[in-house]
Amino acid sequence: MNFVALKMLTGDRAKFLGLVFAIAFSSFLMAHQSSIFCGLMIRTTSQIKDITDADIWVMDPETQYIDEVKALTDNDLYRVRGVSGVEWAVKLFKGVPRAKADDGKFRNVILLGVDDASLVGAPRRMLLGSLADLRQPDSVVIDRAGFYFFFPNQPLSIGQHLEMNDHRITIVGICEASAPFGTFPVMFTRYSQAVNFVGRERNSMSFVLVKPAAGLTTEEVCLRITQATGLKALESTDFAWKTVLYYIRNTGIPVNFGITVMIALIVGTVVAGQTFYIFTIENLKQFGALKAIGVTNLRITGMILLQAFVVGFIGYSLGIGMCSLFFDLTRDIVHLRGFVLLWQIAGGTAVAVFFIVVLASLMSIRRVLTLEPAVVFRG
Amino acid sequence: MDASVAVSCRSVTKDFGQGESRTKVLRGVDFEVNLGQMTFLVGESGSGKTTLLSVIAGLLDATAGEVVVLGQPLKRLSNHQQVVFRRTNLGFVFQQFNLLPALTAAENVAVPLLAQGLPRLRAIAKASDLLTSLGLGQRLNAFPSQLSGGQQQRVALARALVHEPRLIVCDEPTSALDAATGRSVMELLASFAVRPDRAVLVVTHDSRVFDFADRIAHMNDGIIDRIEQQQN
Ligand SMILES: Nc1ncnc2c1ncn2[C@@H]1O[C@H](COP(=O)(O)OP(=O)(O)OP(=O)(O)O)[C@@H](O)[C@H]1O
Ligand SMILES: [Mg+2]
Questions:
Q1: If you average pLDDT over every residue of chain A, what do you get?
Q2: N or C: fewer beta carbons within 10 Å in chain A?
Q3: Which of B14, B59, B5 is nearest to B34 (CA)?
Q4: Is 70 exceeded by the pLDDT of residue B232?
Q5: What is residue A275's predicted lDDT score, i.e. its pLDDT?
Q6: Pairing relationship of beta strands A161-164 and A167-175 according to DSSP bridges
Q7: What are the tens digits of pLDDT across the range A341-371?
Q8: Cβ pair B205, B175 in contact under 8 A
């Protein structure tokens, strides 16, 4: 009887396509919006994620997320260094000064000042130039997206100049940085220079980056730092989560994306459910004939479920396909980079579609099961 | 019970609705359908013919009275047993044909075999053989919408016969057809359906085809008030 169910389903092309598109559209919207949401949230942690040399971030105890910091003192750095279990600890500056190009174009940039001696925290993916050149005076490494902002339509190249707080700075390298949340260009320089560029000498240390000693767990070292100094010490992933949660709690982003996803879910359920129900109602006479002929209720339930799941599967595949195609096509667009379809979202969307399909078929199944087969004799 | 009796109804009543709106449609039907014969059930519109046919076919439960089909009292069957009983022993022909539009002629005819669990290809092969002997060998893969009314009713007839049931029930099989087509469908019904071990029960208005009947039962306001034997 399964092939009968499938033929009934595909027999009415228009309705079949309507069903498939309802599911495809709602899968696409759910997956796409959730991916953009997760992508944005991941972006808030870009600078944490990009620093892979150190495992622990030490900060003021009141710090809520990476973008708002209260400066630490040199004394704090020495105290952290004194904690047993700390292999090494270095300072990191993070600020948002304004940079200006020669043609007058200006932007706030995310400026990271890394330890002068070790360059801990410097970018790992250099596209052009060398990190060693950061040791030259007034030199910076800028990320690809930032370069394109200041020098649009130019091939990547080094040696260009920008101005920052009356300092003429030289681009000595171009790196790949994960897209930041605020779409600012990202620049790296030595700590001592960063402080200069910003124009403040004292109390400019945003974070202390720490490497735990071998043989100790990161949590253990975090705990020791906190106990010894009263500062907050977090593993990078914990700090990333803390930052994400800050944005989730304090911005309208999750609510607004959540609303779109809910609407996609509801519209998907209602449209698919209704179309499927109408489809069943229009075929009621046929189901009646099958019941009269002696097809059991169990069999008919199976037929309807099969129809619903086939529609769900095709619609979901199309929707997820469109979604990953979208992210594939936009991968190289600078401001859309880094957005991907996460497998968790593909999975979650599958669950949502399953829910839609079950709900849509339940009504139809109920209707068909309560159908008196004697209707077949009515005109 | 007489071995030549396919269906026997004793004091069968059927009410629809509850309380005020309760209507008695069958008011004590006593009636027999014999094996090896074509029995017609005729009567005015609203007299209860379709209701009686539905009760005999097990599609409706009688309110009271006893219906015995092929030696089996229907009351004693569970719902599931009724479905199984129908799919083994009954063939249906409807006024509106009720073919599945998405299936070809051969696939439509195969449905009762598929319902019994026969593999698809074997079912379709068997259905095709029968359709061929009913003169539709050229249209096996046609969809119902591509067939004339008479051809569709022949497909429906094949669907009622393919699993070799022992009772065939038809509700107004010719009233959607013109006179000549109606007669040719009745001819096929008479020559393919009527067998010594099988009974055919036809509800009809269509006096143009009364001459095909072996017996004619007249229904009037919920009872059978007269039975004629036809001399063929
Ligand atoms: N499910 C139902 N609920 C309520 N009343 C019904 C139902 N089915 C039939 N009836 C009523 O029972 C009466 C007999 O109906 P039935 O269809 O058996 O008549 P019929 O002899 O087949 O008529 P026709 O020749 O027009 O087909 C009618 O008055 C009809 O309205
Ligand atoms: Mg009727």
A1: 89
A2: C
A3: B5
A4: no
A5: 82
A6: antiparallel
A7: 889 999 999 998 898 888 888 888 999 999 8
A8: yes
Yes or no, beta carbons of B92 and A289 under 8 Å apart: yes
Angle (CA) A329 A331 A235, round 5°: 150
Chain B: residue nearest A4 by CA? B103
- Would you state the pLDDT for residue B2? 66
> Which residue of B94, B107, B111 is in closest CB contact with A376?
B94
Determine the residue type at A57: W
Structure tokens at A67: 């973008």
Dihedral angle, C-alpha B186, B189, B194, B195, nearest 10 °: 150
- Residue B47 beta carbon below 6 angstroms from any ligand 1 atom: yes
Partners of residue B92 on adjacent β-strands: B169
Interface contact B98-A294, CB threshold 8 A: no
| The predicted structure's pLDDT at residue A379 | 62
Partnered with residue B218 across adjacent β-strands are B42, B226
* Alpha-carbon dihedral sign for residues A268, A272, A274, A275: positive
Give the CA-trace dihedral at B97, B100, B102, B103, to 10 degrees. -90
Given its phi and psi angles, is residue A269 left (phi above 0), alpha (psi -120 to 50 degrees) or beta? alpha
CATH topology of domain B5-229: Rossmann fold (3.40.50)
Of A291, A286, A377, the C-alpha closest to B201 is A377
pTM: 0.81
Q: Is B161 helix (H, G, I), strand (E, B) or coil?
A: helix
Q: Is the pLDDT of residue A124 over 90?
A: no
Band of pLDDT at residue B199, cut at 50, 70 and 90: very high
User: What is the identity of the amino acid at A149?
Assistant: F
CA B109/CA B120 separation, integer angstroms: 12
| Residue A62 to residue A70: CA distance in whole angstroms | 8
User: A331: which residues sit within 8 A by CB, 6+ positions away?
Assistant: A337
| Closest residue to B102, CB basis, from A8, A296, A379 | A8
With b meaning 16 or more CB within 10 Å and e meaning fewer, what string describes B59-72? Answer: bbebeebebbbbee
ipTM: 0.91
Provide the residue ranges of all domains of chain A, joining segments of one domain with +: 2-44+252-377, 73-230
- A12, with CB counted inside 10 A (0-12, 13-18, 19+), is middle
Every domain of chain B and the residues it spans = 5-229
Question: What letter represents residue A32's amino acid?
Answer: H
Q: CA A372 to CA A288: how far, in whole Å? A: 7
Which one of B41, B84, B86 would you mutate to disrupt binding with A, by most A Cβ within 10 Å of its Cβ?
A: B86
